[in-house]
Every structure is written in structure tokens, then in C-alpha cells.
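Hi Prof. W.,

I finally got the NACHT N-terminal Helical domain-containing protein prediction working! I wasn't sure whether to trim anything, so I left the full sequence exactly as given:
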Amino acid sequence: MVKSSPFLDVGLSLTSLLLNAAQLAVTPSPVAVAGTLDASQRLWGDICRLSGKDKGTRAFAQRVAERLDDRLRTVSSDADEQEIRGAATAVGALLREVSTDDAAVVEAVRHPEGLGSLLRRRAAPHRELVAASAEPFFDALLPAVAEEFARLAPGSPRFQEGALLQLLDGLDRIEEGLGDLQHGQDEIRAGIVGIHDRLNDFASIWPAAAPERIRFGSRPARAPHFITRGEQEAARRFVIDAAEPLTALTGMRGRGKSQLATTVAAHCEEAGWPLVAWMTASSREALVSALAELGQCLGVSTEDAHSPEVLAGRCLDRLRSTEVSDRLIVLDNIESFDDLRDLVPTGPGLRVLATTTRTQVPGHWQQVPVDVFNREQ
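And this is what came out:
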């Protein structure tokens, strides 16, 4: 007997959320999602075909679970299988909580790319029920689930029609006896050209999330004999797994803060993040200059830009308005957080990792204190 994925419960809960969202999109109430594009509504309708088909729903969820399983194979943890399933159960419970909240489901239909932020805001009480050794799986599951939802939800900037159709199209081969579902898939295959035409119109409103990869700034090279430190794992947990927008490595000079930051940046580059930037932030002037240069790399208009401050402002606007994607900006060697006033980059999926000798950072920053090197390091 084939062993089921430990994330099947998450797959079932995510499928349930998709079904609830589809029901709203297809039959919107006046206060719900009125104004949804016809093309998007038709695709939501395709998801609705699963409603009431228990075996078909389970097959759909199993495929989602298998994708989550593949994504989380690289998560490092001492958790055993039971503890990993416990983390998955907690995430499944969180998804079911969101799925039963009408306001949250409406928001998911309107802004599918925002599900990750919604899950993080509600995650704390569920995370408390997870074994400490399985917390990395819980933290990694949240962005993975959000990405799967965005991939399968019509209306998302990252919606992949092929991914949705593949899941729906395969159901008739997985489960016999779903005649009406088979009929629906035949209609989808027969009308695929029309769906493509509608999606082209849809894409003109929400551009595809495929920005060119930008590598900006001169970050230090990784030391050839660099030894992994606990602070490195903490930084990666905040920046990569939890997608915290603001993280600061703090400590006296010579403790390797920049080397830790460059290791995180290198990991993001190797993972193919579309933007990885390194900026010197030792003064306000240095940061303004770096943002102005990055803005030009991002293609902001230089028309009537008579000063670096204007270009820096346009760069920040571009970062805020870009569709959701994993992005990293390192602010190295901050002398004073006052210099960052109105200059801290923000945007969907954007993380800022700072290094500073300051032991106190503003309360909305996640802090990772960097200790002195031990003998082995």
C-alpha cells in the first residue's frame, strides 16, 4: 500500500479553501466579489466541478500534497514523521479556520497573492501546538501553501492555467465513475483555445510575475572555510522560511555579521530570487545613492529626476507596486536607524536584512544578535 503524503491534510484543507473561494467567485453576493472578470469566473467554475465529488477532491488534494512534499524535502529538522504530521495538521487547521471565515475567503478571491500575509497573521496560536523540532516545517509550509493557492487561484498574478488544468484533467484517470467530472474536462479541452484568449485579456490587467533577475551591489564574497553558525540558521529562518519583512543582525564589529548576510544573499541568488541587492547603509546619503542606482536597474523613469532623492523615491514606489515575489535587499553597516527614515524598502514578498553595531533596533524589526566567534569558528 502506497504511503500517503504527510501533507495530505494540508492538501485537503487547501482544496476546501479553493472550493469555498470558487463558490463565491461563481455566485458572488453584492458585498463579496462583484466585478470578477468573466474569464476568471469561468476558471473558478472549473474548480467548482469538484464540489460534492469526494474521491475527486481527494485526488486533487493528494497531488497538491505531493507538490508540497517535494518543496519541503530540503527543510532541515530533527523532527520525526509524527511531529512533521503534527505540523501539517496545525497548518491544515489554520487553513480550515480561514476557509470558514467569509470575509477572509472574499479577500482570498479578490487578492489571492495576499493569502501568505493572512496566514502569518493568524499562525501564532496554531504554531504553539507544534513540537519545537517541527517548527521549521510549520514555518516553511505557510509560504508553500500560499504559493500553491496563488498558482491555482484564477485572479492571482501567479496563476498558472496549465497547473490547474493538469490537476483537473488527471482526475478522470485517477478515479473512475466521475462521469460528470469527465464531461467537464472534455469541455475544458475542447475550449482550451478560448480559455487562452480570455487569459490573454486577463494578463493585460495583471502582468505575469516573471521579473528579470537583478543582482545589485557588491556584496562580500563568502569566506572559503566559512562554518555554519547558529545565527545563520536564525537569519535564514526569519528571512527565507518566515518571510519576515525586516530582520537585523546586530553585534560589535568583527563578529561576522556581513559574512552571515552574504551567505543568506548567496542562498537567495542560488534559489533564483528575481531581486537580490546589497547596499551600504552607513549614512543616509549612501542609502539614497544606492536606492537611486537600483531604481535605474529596475527601469524607473529618470525624466525630471533632478536629484538622487527623487530617483530613490521612485525606486521605493516601484518596489512597493511590484507583484508579489521573493526579493531580498541587504542594508549593510547601519550606523543609525534614524538614517533609514522613509527609506526602508517594502513590497509584496520583499525582505530586508540589515547589519548594524546597534544593540537596540526598532520594535518592528526581527533581531538576531551575533555573538563572538568560538574557537572552532
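Residues 113 and 150 are 6 Å apart (CA to CA). Does that look reasonable to you?

Thanks,
D.
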